[in-house]
Amino acid sequence: MTAQVTETEAPDTVRVDLGERSYDILIGRGLLAEAGERLKALLPGSRAAIITDENLAKTHLEALQASLDEAGVKHVTFKVPAGESTKRFSMFERLCDDVLAAKLERGDAVVALGGGVVGDLAGFVAASVRRGMNFIQVPTSLLAQVDSSVGGKTGINSRHGKNLIGAFHQPRLVLADTALLDTLSPREFRAGYAEVAKYGLIDDADFFAWLEENHEGIFSGGAEREHAVATSCRAKARIVAEDEFETGARALLNLGHTFGHALEAAVDYNGERLVHGEGVAIGMRLAHDFSVSLGLCAEDDARRVEAHLQKVGLPTHMSDIPGQLPPTETLLDIIAQDKKVTKGALTFILTRGIGRSFVERNVERESVLAFLEKEMN
Ligand SMILES: O=C(O)C(=O)C[C@@H](O)[C@H](O)[C@H](O)COP(=O)(O)O
């Protein structure tokens, strides 16, 4: 394949092995400029519907459009407002209509240029229009590069909770251009870092220790950054290949998310108060302390997790969220709508220590309530 712009070194490639739904995640600087040639090579003759948000439209959209033009890939662009509240029914409906009005076919591609919100929403459009169009992820945030662009979870939020409506729809390609991370705000970068730390906490204590030593290089844009992105993508690809539809091990990727999603819903997805990665950071600290309270995890491990997240500037306590939170009973009601709930029983990702997380399928409501009440007082 001949890529037009090759100032970059050969990208690091992580394969997500899913039989006929397998695909590559390409990681490296400058990949955005290769998007057109890569799309053309993968889907010859296809057109593209770029879905992006209004902020990214000002920064990276032109480069993507130019790359598609150079490769002769016809394209249309649809913009949505930035922020989590965009992941809603009305926006989904509008985008589906836009793609249909542009007469794109099933064999054409929806290209998500953005972070987790754009990727999840655009992916759900791709999964739904004409019962499944090709989907390409061009993640622009750290969170999207290490997590949400990989694995095929797509969807929108409901007033009943986060990501409650959606579908599994794998992308055909993920192009993670790490140069795009240079323009992220410190807050957005930190939020994505929470998902990087998550991989260490799930099952890779060595990676967590490496992060404790090397996080500064990741934040300052050193070679550590590419290593962290690639390690995260490898970890996610391995778990997704093992359990694509989350019937077992994939739930581990939800570490911190049961609490985190409830907190996001509790603030009504108001990104000024809490963004997803921050909810995950608080949720991971809570998951460790909840595990301590159940006698599963050593106190020292929970303190190490808290100290590291705080060191990089992430929130770790519910009291770090500005404004009032609903009472614990309400939080618990939101948690009870979590997708992992089975036959009414709450499921949490708990831990026996750093890198020793596990899925606990029968967690008593009372123990969560007692824990949350202690945390809030
Ligand atoms: O890919 C997965 O599986 C994950 O759980 C990764 C999460 O970090 C991600 O936020 C995901 O979108 C949450 O999924 P959900 O099923 O809890 O909505």
TrEMBL record:
GO terms for molecular function: 3-dehydroquinate synthase activity; metal ion binding; nucleotide binding. Its cofactor is NAD(+); Co(2+); Zn(2+). Its EC number is 4.2.3.4. Binds 1 divalent metal cation per subunit. Can use either Co(2+) or Zn(2+). SUPFAM superfamilies: Dehydroquinate synthase-like. Catalyzes the conversion of 3-deoxy-D-arabino-heptulosonate 7-phosphate (DAHP) to dehydroquinate (DHQ). NCBIfam families: aroB. This is 3-dehydroquinate synthase. The gene is aroB.
